[in-house]
């Protein structure tokens, strides 16, 4: 069954295009060198040696080349080939200066149109806060309205992204909550960091964790479509063409990435499972429950009911009612 849908055309730009359009020159990656002569050059800044460093030295260490706007520094700055500039960018994390200069370019050249907004995809709340600070500094004096968007915001704060902002350019810094859950009608430009935080677990302690990693091509396609909902738009990806070609096509199902200890406890408590994994075998890609059963048995949460079948022990009955990983729940009892 095929249900046709309508989307407007979206023009794509990669990291190479972003560096070319903004003229941003990423700083060279520092290499640590040993020896007494290089100690003062490579030492870490602290309260003691900061007092011995001049303002020029502090500026050279902390400020990227593209931020220096004086005519003298621009004239002396050598022309770096585009290929070399791409290599200088660490694509495994967000370069907030590239992001800020790109937003500055988009606003100055009116890429979003007269009444359009810019939607930026970042990994989490911490990254949104950091980006907000850097963008605010780089675009100082420009009429921008920076709005965060994530799941922990109150509804009245989230509703601000839907309001019309006359005379101001709305820039929304969002987690992947805007990937599928929310449609912003006036969004015409998407900037994608191509990163996301995925739930996983530590196989040693059987504890859940969040991993910062590249999003899949399917996720990037979904984010790109945010700019083509109601009119044609543009999408800027902050990764190179080579990196994009190596991304996985789809995100692995969460049930294959997470520990099943808590899920198995709940299923046993409801009577849907007997420890053999029969309930989960109905899934398209059934996961193995062996690691979860071994972990819960060692903890004393499961006991043998009959050959090949398990049931909850008294401890397991208590743990099944606690909305936390079994290891944490046992600590609370």
TrEMBL record:
Residues 101-271 form the Helicase C-terminal domain. Residues 21-78 are annotated as: Disordered. Transmembrane segments: none annotated. Pfam families: Helicase_C. SMART domains: HELICc. GO terms for molecular function: helicase activity; RNA binding. InterPro entries: Helicase_C-like (IPR001650), P-loop_NTPase (IPR027417). It comes from the Eukaryota. Residues 52-64 have a biased composition (Acidic residues). PROSITE patterns: HELICASE_CTER. This is Helicase C-terminal domain-containing protein. It comes from Eucampia antarctica. The lineage of its organism: Eukaryota, Sar, Stramenopiles, Ochrophyta, Bacillariophyta.
């Amino acid at each position: 069954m095929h249900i046709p849908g309508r989307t407007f055309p979206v023009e794509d730009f990669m990291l190479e295009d972003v560096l070319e359009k903004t003229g941003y020159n990423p700083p060279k990656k520092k290499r640590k060198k040993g020896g007494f002569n290089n100690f003062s050059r490579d030492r870490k800044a602290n309260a003691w040696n900061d007092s011995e460093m001049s303002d020029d030295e502090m500026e050279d260490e902390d400020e990227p080349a593209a931020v220096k706007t004086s005519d003298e520094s621009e004239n002396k700055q050598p022309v770096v080939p585009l290929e070399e500039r791409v290599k200088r960018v660490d694509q495994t994390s967000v370069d907030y200066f590239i992001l800020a200069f790109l937003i500055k370019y988009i606003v100055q050249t009116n890429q979003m149109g007269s009444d359009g907004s810019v939607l930026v995809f970042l990994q989490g709340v911490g990254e949104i806060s950091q980006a907000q600070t850097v963008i605010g500094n780089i675009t100082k004096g420009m009429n921008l309205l920076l709005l965060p968007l994530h799941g922990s915001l109150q509804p009245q704060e989230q509703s601000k992204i839907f309001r019309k902002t006359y005379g101001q350019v709305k820039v929304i810094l969002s987690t992947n909550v805007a990937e599928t859950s929310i449609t912003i009608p006036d969004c015409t430009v998407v900037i994608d960091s191509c990163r996301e935080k995925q739930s996983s677990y530590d196989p040693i302690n059987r504890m859940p964790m969040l991993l910062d990693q590249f999003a899949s091509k399917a996720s990037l396609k979904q984010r790109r479509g945010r700019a083509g909902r109601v009119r044609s738009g543009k999408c800027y990806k902050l990764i190179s063409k080579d990196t994009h070609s190596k991304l996985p096509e789809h995100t692995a199902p969460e049930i294959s990435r997470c520990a099943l200890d808590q899920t198995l406890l709940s299923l046993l408590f409801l009577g849907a499972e007997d420890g053999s994994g029969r309930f989960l075998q109905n899934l398209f890609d059934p996961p193995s429950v062996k690691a979860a059963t071994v972990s819960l048995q060692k903890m004393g949460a499961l006991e043998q009911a009959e050959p090949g079948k398990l049931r909850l022990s008294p401890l397991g009955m208590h743990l099944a009612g606690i909305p936390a990983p079994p290891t944490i729940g046992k600590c609370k009892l």
